[in-house]
Write a structure and sequence with these properties.
alpha/beta; six-stranded parallel sheet; homodimer; 36% helix; 13 helices
Chain lengths: 434, 434
């Protein structure tokens, strides 16, 4: 049984979780895997605050060099977060030939290419299971467990904050803002929540999964991102009546037979009976369609001290085994395989759409709308038109379309919104029949 | 990129799937992982039948020595099935120092200890991802992805035939036998279905998962096994009314704080809203509770040519990487870690129970039944008693109990069944609040 000396940078929530996990389960991990990661140094600007986990204070340092340049450290765990100093630390560790484990999705999403190039140059490992979907071993599944498959599609519920908000809106019939307020009070949402609710965090994870699936490091540029801030409760209700739930999904899929790819993040209507629709509260799930394995799903906690630590420690075991067997980069951090590359422009995707319009209670309104859609090549799958409420002169129309190009629906909705009988801005949401 | 020469024994459904997968995706697998498994020999008694997959006929042989004793073969894939000649083949391959990949759950369930001992003696790998839950990479998840965790519990829907039958009974309101007949006609159930419907196949997989989770090779002896053959449609209905679905589960969990374990296979009532309850048709899922990661679930196809091939080929990649990096047994096939060992006797488990009694329509019947349960220390959580149907003199009572020992409920039901007001044999099913 080999001890692996771990240098931790960042003693926050996840760092404390890693310390706790190794303290509680270190012996079991060693007995089970043959390597036992042991905390050797922890660098943080704040080494005074009690983190509530058992740690020998002499291991704490404010000097990051005590980790990065310490010949006794076998592996560096980067838990600083962000894309600035974290990047420096990771590059410096790799340059020193030290393998790195990180949970930093933003760093990889923006600088993955540079970081993997540095890892390849040094020959050291970089592992990042905790960067996507927390404790769910989805990176390992994509790189190893499903290695036999062309990936047809991935649909991910990748942000626990968004899923928690959507779950409560749907179950309690509450609007977005009060649920967000409550989520913030309960600690399920950050004081500055935009990274989560505007879809960026989901996008970071989506591009990592896309790159692993399709063998090209895409970065953030090709991603279409739409969050949940604008979601209106009535659309959750109408969606439910039509047999759908609304989830914020990261969507990656083969767009056609020519190897082009769709990558996008947006609130999505999915059938109520589908596996993903049943993923509630802060839980995450990644639905992967492989050409050989068929449909699979991986479910669990996407964040939090312990779930994230579970993934970090699993990576430490992998790195430890690679050190033991002198097989660094046994499984490449990211290996381009050049099968696919072009990401389809958002306007060129094919999708079904949910549309809600507020229209005047006048004759022939629906006909005029249907004409515009029809002229745009969009056929209507279902229409729901309620009676106008007493005292109002307008009413909502809910349309669900057949498959159409995003460009077509956008054009048609622009035209429809200019009709004198249409009030306000049409609501358009995308549907995936997972 | 290294080619791995594969010798296949057994050219049936799964063997054909492996050939097809390597033919279609071999190049991608090589580009992605650095190793490309290539079929080098296929041994089967029947080398005449066209399997519908592209294969050079010169690779076919009826002589198993052409695989087992062939110095050109890097890895042996055993897909013969059964526990007799398959065992000989696996042991012979290992003795020859050849790594083995197998999908054979029965073989491991009955002879895992002997086979792993042989692997350890020879130093060769044995991988068996396909033996549990088909294409779902659950073995890899337990051994690697969740390596940081003490496993608190595993609940598995591990047999697609049973899940298909239960799904159709529930959805279509059909009894067991006609659904089984139809499943056999459609090829979802074997002509001799007992291995599936009596729970033995689920038990084979359950003991493999239990051994991985708890570091002791348990074999089949400690397992309590009850299948779905006896299930009555009315119990699915009453369960649904009470908010439960009935699934055949393999259940493994820590029984208490003293490290004892429960291992059992039986039809189980689980809450309708739970993730596992939503797993339908032939799909499998394994719900794993870890002490660090929390709740996770792994979902996918548990059988079939392609899903099983996906797991076999993933194992071939792992074996190939181990050959490339000279790291055989990097992840041990099975490593005892001596943390747990005793399996609780079935009579000593604690559970909640669903009980259905047919009783005469007389006064004080419920009171007498409640007295017997109460005297046995079993308290009732809910009772449903319907009115007797016109023309009958008996009526059903549905009881749901609080937690009680299996011994207590068995004794109480024996006593209850002897009451003059009780007709027939009481139905008892177990409840898990997953």
């Amino acid at each position: 049984m080999r001890e692996i000396r771990v240098g931790l940078i960042g003693f926050g929530t996840v760092g404390s979780g890693v310390v706790k996990c190794l303290h509680n389960n270190g012996k079991l991990i060693g007995a089970r895997s043959g390597v036992q990661p042991v905390i050797h140094k922890i660098a943080d600007l704040d080494i005074v605050t009690d983190r509530g986990v058992p740690i020998d204070k002499s291991l704490l340092t404010t000097n990051v060099s005590d980790v990065l340049d310490n010949p006794d450290i076998d592996v560096v765990v980067e838990l600083v977060g962000g894309t600035t100093i974290a990047k420096d630390f990771v590059l410096r560790a790799l340059k020193n030939g030290k393998p790195v484990v990180t949970a930093n999705k933003a760093l990889l999403a923006y600088h993955g290419d540079e970081i993997f190039a540095a890892a390849n140059e040094s020959g050291a490992d970089i592992y990042y299971e905790a960067s996507v979907a927390g404790g769910i071993p989805i990176i390992k599944a994509l790189r190893e467990g499903l290695a036999a498959n062309h990936i047809r599609a991935i649909y991910g519920i990748l942000n626990g904050t968004c899923n928690y908000i959507l779950t409560r809106m749907e179950r309690e019939g509450l609007s977005f803002q009060p649920v967000l307020d409550d989520a913030q009070a309960l600690g399920y949402a950050e004081a500055e929540p935009s990274l989560d609710i505007d879809g960026d965090d989901t996008a970071h994870k989506t591009t990592i999964l896309a790159s692993l699936a399709y063998g090209e490091w895409f970065g953030m540029k090709p991603l279409f991102i739409e969050g949940i801030r604008h979601l209106d409760l009535v659309d959750l209700r109408y969606a439910a009546e039509a047999g759908y739930k609304i989830k914020l999904l990261g969507i990656i899929k083969l767009a056609g037979n020519n190897g082009t790819i769709e990558m996008r993040v947006h609130p999505t209507l999915i059938p109520t009976g589908s596996m993903l629709a049943n993923v509630s509260e802060v839980f995450n799930a990644v639905y992967v369609k492989g050409d050989v394995v068929g449909d699979t799903m991986f479910y669990g906690r996407g964040a939090g001290m312990d779930a994230t630590a579970s993934a970090v420690v699993a990576d430490l075991v992998d790195v430890g085994l690679n050190l033991t067997f002198e097989s660094p980069q046994r499984v490449s951090a990211f290996r381009p395989h050049g099968t696919y590359s072009d990401v389809v422009d958002m306007e060129d995707i094919d999708c079904r759409y949910y549309v809600r319009l507020e229209v005047l209670d006048e004759p022939r309104v629906l006909g005029r709308i249907a004409d515009i859609l029809g002229n745009g090549g969009i056929s209507i799958a279902s229409v729901t038109q309620e009676e106008a409420k007493p005292g109002t002169d307008s009413l909502p129309i809910i349309l669900i379309t057949h498959q159409a190009k995003e460009r077509s629906i956008r054009r048609a909705l622009t035209e429809i919104s200019q009709l004198d009988v249409v009030r306000g801005t049409p609501v358009m949401l995308r549907i995936e029949d997972i």
